[in-house]
Amino acid sequence: MFACLIGKWITMETVMRIDCEEITLCETKFTGEELNRFLKHWINGGSPRLKTFYAAVGTDSTFQLFDGIENTRIEEDKDYQAKHGKYKLTFMRWYQIKRNDGVTAAVEFAFNFSRNRYFLQFVIWPDEHGNT
């Protein structure tokens, strides 16, 4: 796990080099274009161990996020329980994307009222056998 409470110094290049299952970043300066680059990196096989990515961002940049990325908008709510059981995320009005090898991820911008910020939530959904 990699976590950083004040992530203004972190670049997207640094994030793409982190090799772990969970990345949590608060107070980042990532733009929609940078997050789009990260998703394309993951789709093409980058960060293969990553299971969850949670990053504070300034605005909901959904349109920039999915530029050039095939996605499916999902209207039903879905809960994600972290493998280690420390937290649960609820996805509402989220998007599904697939990596080139068929692994499925959920992506959502969620507003955190207590922090007055948007967060990008990204998780790998388990397959029919429960594998992520």
UniProtKB/TrEMBL annotation:
UniProt xrefs under Pfam families: FBA_2 (PF07735)
InterPro entries noted in UniProt: F-box_Sdz-33 (IPR012885)
Domain Sdz-33 F-box: 7-54
PANTHER family referenced in this protein's UniProt entry, alphabetically: F-BOX ASSOCIATED DOMAIN-CONTAINING PROTEIN-RELATED, F-BOX-CONTAINING HYPOTHETICAL PROTEIN C.ELEGANS
Entry protein name: FBA_2 domain-containing protein
Organism: Caenorhabditis tropicalis
